[in-house]
Amino acid sequence: LALYFHSGEREEKCIIEDIPTDTLVIGNYKVQRWDIHKQEFLESAPGLGMFVTVTTPSAEVLLSKLYGPQGTFSFTSHLSGEHIICLQSNSTRFIAFAGSKLRIHLDIRVGEHFLDESVVQAKDKVNAVNFRLEHLIEQVHHISKEQNYEREREEKFRKTSEETNSNILWWAIVQTLILISIGIWQIKSLRDFFISKKLV
């Protein structure tokens, strides 16, 4: 997931990521500040920092840390489900003008270890192949976990659908029985009425 969004001074922006259990998540971000004189976003935003907060589906705070204007954060999920990742600048009126605009570039990788190419180049070819092979194995494990998570979600959805269908069926049976009972009662009432009036 790679995106960018605009934010105001000290404005908190959050995104939701659906993450399987025991999955490594790595986020890279860069902050740019709007320059009023140049009428463009500057490449860097010195003096600014980003406060990153990650909340689990059970509302537990998994990560809460202040970083610089450009950085990397990471965490491992303990529960499967929707994790909330929030970023907020720590700018003040002394650093940035009140109400100034910030552009935040965010790149989130789920279940992936970034390859350090300099490390790979420093090793011989055999070690580089082993390193890449381990990376591929990690990716296979991540895909397997993703599939298991999707299977669990599908199973929950199927059970919910079956319960809903069962409830609808029973409600239809109850309605039918009520209608039949009312029909029998009306016929009996009409018959008793005609007998009492000696019309039959």
UniProtKB/TrEMBL annotation:
The keyword Chloroplast does not apply. InterPro entries: Emp24-like, GOLD_dom. Residues 12-110 form the GOLD domain. Its main location: endoplasmic reticulum. It is found in: Endoplasmic reticulum membrane; Membrane. Coiled coil: none annotated. GO terms for cellular component: endoplasmic reticulum membrane. The chain crosses the membrane at residues 168-187. Keywords: Endoplasmic reticulum, Membrane, Signal, Transmembrane, Transmembrane helix. It is a single-pass type I membrane protein. It holds the Pfam family EMP24_GP25L. The keyword Signal applies. Belongs to the EMP24/GP25L family. This is TMD11 protein. It comes from Pedionomus torquatus.
